[in-house]
Structure formats: C-alpha cells, structure tokens
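Folds vary. Our protein:
___
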Amino acid sequence: MSSSNNLKQYKTILNNINDLVFNLNDQFKIEYINKNVLYEKLGYNKNQLLGNSLINYIDEENKEQVINQLKNRFKPENKRKTIKIKDINNKWISFEYTGKSYYDNMGKMRYFLVLQDITKRRIAEERYKTLFENSPNAILILNFKGIVIDANITTQRLLGFNKKDIINRSIFKLKELFPIEIKPFYKNIFKASFKGKFPKPVELKIRTKNKDNIWVNIQASLVKAGENILIQFIFQDITEKKKVEILEKRFKEKLEQEVENRTKRLNKLLNEQKLYLDQILKSSQFKTEFMATMSHELRTPLNAIIGFTDLLLEGAYGKLNEKQLEFIKDIKSSAHHQFDMIKQILDISKIEAGKTILNYQKCSLNTIITQILSSLKPLYRKKNLKIKFKGVENEKLIFVDPIRLKQILYNLLNNAIKFTMEGTIILIIKEKHDQWIFKVKDTGIGIAREDFDLVFKEFKRIDSTYVRSTNGTGLGLPLTKRLVELFGGEIKFESILGVGTTFIFTILKREIKEIDL
C-alpha cells in the first residue's frame, strides 16, 4: 500500500472516530482536525478553525496548563487532563485530552492531541452523587488502603455516625463500628479487585453509635472517581429479616434433629451420594465454563497483536531493519500459535457443553479432499513428502457437515506431515452400507506403546526430542476425537515406534430425514 493510500486510510479512520483529533504547528495553530467529529461536538466546520490557535478556544482556567504541556512536549508525564472547549454557540464542553509531540520532515515541532468528550460522564457522575446521597442504604467509599474518604447521609441515620466520625479513618481502626470479621472480607475484596470477581456479600452484626447491635448485608464493588478506582461498601439493614431467619433456623434444626434420629442411616447414604454427584457436576461445569470464558477473553488481544504486526510488516509506520523484522515475525508467529490453541480450546469446550450442532449437507468428498490438499501443499512440499489417496478415484457424494469433516482430516493429515521426516502419507477411504471408514497412514516417527494413553489427552505431548522441536498444543487429537464422536463414530490408531502410525476413524451414514432441522 502506498504512503498516499495509507494517509487517506488514516484520515478516513480519524474522521469516523468519536474523539476530536488536532494537529498543531509549533505556534499551536490548527493544521488538521477530523471534520466530522468537529461538527458533531462543537458545531464548527473545519475552515472556521484551521489556521487559528487552539489556545483561543480553551477556557481561561486551563489555558496555562495546556500551554505548559505543549511547551514541555507533554513531559515528564502524559496523563489525561481535563479542559473546556468553546463551541460555536459559546457553550463550554468538557473534554479529557492527551497528546504527543513530534518533528515533521522539515524538522519543525508539531503536536498531536486527542480530546475525549466527557459530558455524559459528568452527567453520570452527578446522577451517581444524587443516588449516593439519597440511597436508603448506608454507603461508605474507601481507597485501597482501607481509608474511608466519603459517606452518604443515610450512614448517619442508620449507623449513628456522621461523616466527621469516620472520614479519613481506617476501617480496621473503627472498632466501635466494625467487628474483627471485616478484616478478612476486606482482604478478599482487595485480592478480587485484580481479578474482577468480587466475593459474595456478607452478613455481619455491627454496632451503631448508640451501642445497638444490628445485622447488615455488606456488598462491595468498584467505583471510578476521575482517574481513581475506589471501593464502595453498601450496608443494608437486615435486622428484622435476620431475626426471622434465626427463629426459622432454630425450628428447622429441631425438626431436622428429630427426623435425623429416626432415619440417620438413610440420610447419611443420601448425603454422601449427593455430595459425590455435586462434586462431579461442579468440576465438569467449572472446567467447561472456565475454558470457554478464557478462550473468548484471550482471543480479543491476540487479534489486536496480529493486526498491528501486519501493519508493521507492511511498513505502515516506517521501514523496519532486519532485526526488527525478525522480532515482529516471531511475535506474529507466536500470536497465531496462541490463537490456534485458543480456538481449539473453545471448540472442545463447546462440544463438552453440548453447544456444537452439526450442519449436515450433501457435498462432494473429492472436493473436500482437494481443498484440504491445497491447504497442506506448502507443508508436505517443504519436506519433500508424497501424499496419496485411495478410494476416491470416482466422484463420491457424502451427507455430512463439511466444515467439521475438513477439520478432522486436516488435523490428522497435518499431524502426519509434522511427524514424518521422509516417505509417503496415504489417505484411504472406504464406503460401507452404514458408515464411512477413513485411514491416515504415515511413515513417521511412530509412537511408543507406553505413550499410547497420552495421544487423546488434552495438553499432553509425547516426551521426545523430535516432538519437542515441533510446534503443537496437545489439543489437535483430543479435539479430533470429540468431533468424530459428535458424528456418532469412533477413532483409534495403530503405531510402531520408528516405523509409522495409522489413524482410523468412522462416520455414521445419515439420511436427510434423520437430521433435526
């Protein structure tokens, strides 16, 4: 892509983002501004601002701050700061801004500024303040050191303590209010803030300023105040509810004791069975949900890494030297490897969760094989391997999910190529009245009998020098096994160390009337 096309592309992007983008010369005069956002945010057209100093449109309170930052080239720190910009109707609009200085091709200083409209955020903050003060529950705001920095009006009404009693004090030293149990709860909150998963609300007995004991439900969450992240404690009075629960609990305990005395043995067996089943279910659900969630969350940054490395390799930000190209190519290769692993994890998780549905359709088996062969051609040609096919000399139609069948065959053939140093790989296909039989035979390194149990286990790879030298996640064959079983088939293998391996899998034949549409 030429530099002019790049410039045109970047301007198109800038004109369609939600933030204001300014480019200033060394006299702080505006040389560029993204016109669409300018008109939307401030009402000007670009000709009304180009050539004018940006300083003329900034409120007096922040002019000196902006000038100093520009003169100091946004050093020593480049944190986002707040300013107000006058729109075409002389109304002040609040923005957060950050910037960067650079020298142009003529060696002259230029400034690049990005301004984010925070009007909605200010409105939201005012709304939060109103809700904060008028909440029926007591609310304390703390920093991460456990120091109380704010409290709402309800705090005094519910707990009897006014702001002067508790602000700037550590919750660990508020012994007249908090019992000792608050310490482990707060420590859990502090740890959870780094993981984004807060502990469940706790129910505690606390003392009011009048020495009355009341029960409260304490719920913790994070709140953002400007650039600061704070902890919010919400106290809900549950004293009456707790009294009822205590009475119900006592009655229940008495009743359960009487029943337990009569049916002690039966209850013991039932409880043991329930505990066992719950543990199995919990373990399975946790594994499936964890793998699916983490796979999804990790793919997003990897997409960004791959996208940016492509831009760097294309020279979008200047020509790279040989060493830089090597590093960027390594980053891209590693990102693709991680992306493939995550995709396989997500596929396995979906199958285990019962969320994978096969899309059956009538298609050409010969076409499927041709497409797979085309994808694998660079791999087997690089190693001077031969690939042969048997059983598809004539056109064969198959009723199957073509995408999932391609995935199975690609994984097995790719695996064969990876672990074959020389020789031939053969794909044999047989059609029977009730099933299809596929065999992938190679002349590779083979598998030792003591390693047979590792082949279809997730994240397990055979411990050998050659295997360690090849890329792999240990997920390809486990995923392949699950896909074959999804088709109602089965997969097995035969192997001799140093001679080669043959994988054999079957797919049940199905008619259109059998498929759930």
Notes: The chain has four domains: 3-117, 123-239, 263-356, 361-514. The longest helix spans residues 264-313.
